[in-house]
Amino acid sequence: MDGGMKDNDLSGIVSADRAHVWHHLTQHKPLETTDPKIIVEGKGMRVWDQTGREHLDAVSGAVWTVNVGYGRERIANAVRDQLLQLNYFAGSMGSIPGARFAERLIDKMPGLSRVYYANSGSEANEKAFKMVRQIAHKRFGGKKHKILYRDRDYHGTTLGALSAGGQQERNAQYGPFAPGFIEVPHCLEYRAADQGWGDLSGEAYGQRAADAIEEVILREGPETVGALCLEPVTAGGGVIPPPPGYWERVQEICRKYEVLLHIDEVVCGVGRTGTWFGYQHYGVKPDMVTMAKGVASGYAAIACLVTTEEVFDMFKSDADDPLDYFRDISTFGGCTAGPAAALENMAIIEEEDLLGNCQAMGARLMENLHGLMEKHRVIGDVRGAGLFCGAELVADRASKEPVSEALVRAVTGDCMAQGVIIGATNRSVPGYNNTLCFAPALIATPDDIDQITDAVDGALSRVFG
């Protein structure tokens, strides 16, 4: 560890953490007798804990965020300089980094034109939902207010975002939820039989999964459905790339019934899949796009809701109506550190051709995972896009019976013991928390990729024999 800190230097930190910090997604009972893990330092692809132990981070900060890696001095300096010039002013006014980043961002998103700043992915999605509801009142007498979301997709942690959440275990114990959010089926081809669609595959499956959305619209009544919110690649629900033809048919359906297409790029956006945005793989033209995580690679909090000019114009009016504009504010959407960091983050991706590296290293990661699949029968399916890949573990390939979540945790725990941090679906989809997840930073090298899959190889051998 570069800082040279030892365990005894951090004993007070560990005690303070155990006594006062409430960690995310954590059952704290075990921490009464076990030290919490404190991440002290990060550089490139690696982080060090309080004991000085080095870990290769294969999940970009555990939640798919640090796209350009740790220790980027130029981003830190850009944030520092901006904070000294102007750290904050409410988003009802503009700022220099806010204007500059919006211009740079829109340049990467043909067909879109407006950027609304927020401070988290959950909040950005909430803004989109509010826009849909307000449009319903302004143009459709409040009737076209329903928002469709997809089984297994996740859109955030607030009650509104959970109302659009397709992960039942994430939602458990937090209801009742907001009305008017309607679920459509997932598009995981590997699980077509579980949906009652037999052995459909390829474009036939993609067509069927998309048609299922139209069936929901017709059941609910097209005059009541205002928007469809989807991840371009389902993330925490099992790393699910869309089947062939799916997105093209989805867009056709949305246009047919005047349903706004809202794409949640919180995970996939800004390079994760090898393009600037995941939807750009599929030729889709969304009405709204939300993003967060990789926008500034975690160097500052920032999220964006990006819309077409047509959506923006729906909130402009010459009428003397005090309620006619988008009456919303994000306090920390006015922080200037976010767009300042995002500008440098985008410049690094461009200058170092990290999109190209993502494509090349993503191909290597998939090749390695397919190699592991040939060796370990517990791997039933391998899927992904760019440096965002998953390996679904099954007890039996013929029946596709998922392995238990406890066994998946044993694999991730074994990798952690080897000094490699990988992810997995957990406490999300009942019975299907069985996918190992990989999302290394876009700076990954061939050696990094090989170290990740070597660790998984050893873990699978030890856990499953």
Structure report:
There is one protein chain. By secondary structure, this protein is an alpha/beta fold. The chain has two domains: 38-67 and 354-464, Aspartate Aminotransferase, domain 1, CATH 3.90.1150; 73-352, Aspartate Aminotransferase, domain 2, CATH 3.40.640. It has helices at 11-20, 60-64, 73-85, 96-107, 121-140, 159-163, 168-171, 202-220, 246-256, 309-313, 337-351, 354-375, 405-417, 446-464, and strands at 39-43, 46-49, 54-57, 114-118, 146-150, 181-184, 225-230, 260-264, 288-291, 303-307, 379-384, 389-396, 401-402, 420-421, 423-424, 435-438. A seven-stranded mixed sheet has the order 4-10-9-8-7-5-6, sandwiched between helices. It is globular, with a radius of gyration of 22 Å. The chain starts with 10 loop residues before the first helix and ends with a helix. The relative contact order is 0.15. This is Taurine-pyruvate aminotransferase. Keywords: Aminotransferase, Pyridoxal phosphate, Pyruvate, Transferase. Its cofactor is pyridoxal 5'-phosphate.
Concise account of the structure shown:
The chain has 465 residues and is α/β, with parallel strands linked by helices. The chain has helices at residues 11-20, 60-64, 73-85, 96-107, 121-140, 159-163, 168-171, 202-220, 246-256, 309-313, 337-351, 354-375, 405-417, 446-464; strands spanning 39-43, 46-49, 54-57, 114-118, 146-150, 181-184, 225-230, 260-264, 288-291, 303-307, 379-384, 389-396, 401-402, 420-421, 423-424, 435-438.
Topology diagram in text:
Elements (H helix, E strand, L loop, with lengths): L10 H10 L18 E5 L2 E4 L4 E4 L2 H5 L8 H13 L10 H12 L6 E5 L2 H20 L5 E5 L8 H5 L4 H4 L9 E4 L17 H19 L4 E6 L15 H11 L3 E5 L23 E4 L11 E5 L1 H5 L23 H15 L2 H22 L3 E6 L4 E8 L4 E2 L2 H13 L2 E2 L1 E2 L10 E4 L7 H19 L1
Parallel strand pairs: 3-14, 5-6, 5-7, 7-8, 8-9
Antiparallel strand pairs: 1-2, 2-3, 4-10, 9-10, 11-12, 12-13, 12-16, 15-16
Helix pairs in contact: 3-11, 4-11, 8-9, 12-14, 13-14
